Amino acid sequence: MKSTSALYLAFFMAIISLAIFSCQKEISFQNSGGYTGFISAWSFTHSGNKYNGCIGSAYYEMINGVKALSIKGSDSRGNNVSILIPAPDGKLSKGNYTAAQGAALAIDSNSHTYISDTSASSFLFTVLDISDTSIKASFTASLKDISNSFYTISNGNITALIGKNNYCLQTAGGSNGGTSGGTSTYSLKATGNNCSIDSVAGNYNTTVALTNANTIAIKVDVSKIGTWSLTTGTVNGMRFSGNGTFTNTGAQTIVLNGNGTPLDINVSDFEITAGTTTCNFYIPVIGAGTAPCNPADSTAEFSGIISDKYSQVAHNPNSSLGGFTITAKGNKTEINLQFKGPNAPTSGVYHVKSIGNVKNIDDVAITAVVNNIAWQSSQGNVYVNVTNGNISTVICSLTLSNSQTGSSSTTKLTAKIIGK
Questions:
Q1: Selecting from 1.10.3470, 2.30.30, 2.60.40, 3.40.50, what CATH number does the domain 179-285 have?
Q2: Which helix (H) or strand (E) holds 10?
């Protein structure tokens, strides 16, 4: 059998391909042909929240000369699961398979891909029952993404048909444990599955407890006056709830108050139900942090080159660069910040990436033009603060480079850009 390191490398490349493929694949949540009474599914718990979905496929394949069982799954919220378990003898049997033996797991969640490494504790897959055509297993994992952020999994379970169509009972949307009540009758206004939101207030940062400032206002249509109460399930350490009395019918707005402490950087998906209507709203969670510098408002300093002031700041949610952009123009300089979007950035720390690599919710790309010369950066941080709708971005000694002057050169940018 191949060495663990060689096997891991082969499986690592394969699991990356599986993760990318899963991101692109649309899973059907309707009955698959050839249903035989076997229900396929996957589930696990992460940060106190339970995730579950359908099996897209399960089959044996050869990877770098080693036979392995490949399992791919997804859920209606876009989370993807990719598993590879080596079967050097041609098929699996009951027992434990660890990352140290070449087993591999990748989870794609909110544009972050978390992958097991070669340590036994990184991924433990236990085959509970297996035949030539089906498998039942449990698993636990401690995964990391490219920035070494952890993603811990407990209570993982999988049932799948091998080499056959997998039937799944899950329907799009799902439920995360919310409740509603009261004497009134009303429906949630929505566009597709998305709740009609009037406003989202407050900052949502990892490890920072929500306060009375964290609220969300949701549009509803009241057909019978009376009391109402609504509570979401707990998602990513947060929950929203509210209650009140409708005294008029027609279009109204209800306010839900947030509580709890966000756990992970992601776009947290909340589902609510009122009567026969269900919709989802989304809360972006960004890492907490305070800028280590405090430049004067609307100024920039390009070390060794020029200082400038900005009188024009434009926000564009549909930039030709993609995502949400903030552009600040001064007398001789221009700074462009590209966030993932499409919504405006929220308060927190964003990590600088090169142009074309803004993929995660906390990514940002920065380019600048100084005296008609283009500059860019691929590492560092940008600090965003949002107060009453006004977005302030602070940049502290960020290294920029260019190659237009005949030889590569660098400068350090310190700036504060303010604009609504």
A1: 2.60.40
A2: helix 4-24
